[in-house]
Amino acid sequence: MQNDSEQLAQHISEAAAAMKAEGLRILDLRALASFTDFFVVCSGASDRQVQAIADQVQENLRAISRRPIGVEGYDAAQWILLDYGSVVVHIFYPEAREFYQIEKLWADAPELAAHGS
Fold this sequence. Notes:
By secondary structure, this protein is of the alpha+beta class. The protein is built from 4 helices and 6 strands. It is 36% helix and 25% strand. A 6-stranded mixed sheet has the order 3-4-5-2-1-6. The longest helix is centred in the middle third of the chain and has 16 residues, at 47-62. It has helices at residues 4-18, 47-62, 94-100, 102-105; strands spanning 22-28, 38-43, 70-72, 79-83, 87-92, 111-112. Helix 1 packs across helix 2 (47-62). The protein has one domain: 2-Layer Sandwich (Beta Polymerase, domain 2), CATH 3.30.460. The two termini are 21 Å apart.
């Protein structure tokens, strides 16, 4: 049975997949971090697509009365971070994703099946 944060991560991955997000991954951090339960990580092929993915995630979550605690990087669109507390969304421009290698930093995190992966 999925808990609320896992359902939220899946809902976010579905919204990102609807905007053709690339490299969509859900990392389970529950055993590794105290600040969040899951990372949803994906990329967009252009700065406009990165912003469109962020917009779609926020719109879909607003429909279920969920708003981010914080949004970082939207204007630059190289790495947009959406903080939903128990789930943190990282939407990267491909070069930024390669540079920061967030998946390598959290390589010990189990991965859940993401929508569309």
